[in-house]
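Morning, I've got a small favour to ask if you have a moment. I've dropped the whole record in just underneath, so have a look.
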Amino acid sequence: MQDPRVEKLAKVLVEYSLEVKKGDLMIIQATDIAAPMVRAVYREALRAGAHVTTRVAVEGLDEIFFKEAGEDQLTYVSEFRKLETEKATVMLNLWGGFNPKNLTAVDPKRMAVTQKAHFEISKRFMERTAKGELRWCGTMFPNHASAQEAEMSLAEYEDFVFQACFVDKPDPVAEWKRVAREQERIVQFLSKKKAIKVEGKDTDLTVSVGGRKWINCCGQKNMPDGEVFTGPIEDSANGKIRYTYPAIYGGKEVVDVRLTFKDGKVTEARAEKGQELLQAMIAMDEGAKRIGEFAIGTNYGVQRFTKNTLFDEKIGGTIHLALGFSIPESGGVNQSGIHWDMVCDLKAGGRIYADREKFYEDGKFLM
């Protein structure tokens, strides 16, 4: 018997997150492990009148590709992917796999080559979402592998995921609308500021944000959600930051990341584990050395690090800064083949200032 929360979440995704309507060209991208959610979303999208295409991947193909592909194949960009990116009006990504570590033995430089080759398609995707031409959302289907990564049983992890999405509430949509209202106060406050300064353990970093737009993330691009973010001025980052949690990329962990910035550019990058991957990603292109996003996690219902960025970047009491591509709707103009979120916990002595006014301390807003 299928968990009724799957059907409930599917309804929230179709009606609230993606606002699917009659005539939409919708693509559902997923791994085969997410089949129950694929079926539930497919049913709801058809009922909404959309024309739905599914693209369900078989586990392990990425590993085979990166180990076997020739240079011309690593840099090839599918014409079908280009067409999807250009024509779809709705796109849903359902994440989850049997083994999140299946790319551990892959040469990070080969991964960087492919990521760089897909820059233009990623750029076009971001442009269309920023203009409202493409409505997109990503979410996680609870599975054994992700539960193991989070050090939970599957039942515990299912509860964790569905609670984070408010599916345990009588009216999840009403809950997300409440989040939207609360976060709008933060957005309005920050929108008037020109400079942000973060202080914490081995962290003293400033960025300029004047003229950039703060975005209220309330369940429409990610599910679950809970953050406010902007695209800092590209040459403004100065100082250092030490990330509390491992940075995850392609299932690989980069532990104890420490970055130093001067005039917006990474001048030093160190990690206790995963140094080769960190260096390969930063060396991908010039944009990978700069910050494309500055964000504050606001979901205080998510307090456990699970090695999944979808949840970890939302943890209330944290910030995350992404190296690489800026989200166009924020006003950021940094260009790169990557957008790599890294999370820093501020709950133990961390502080954030806006134009020298302290508005955040020990993981809480003071407003």
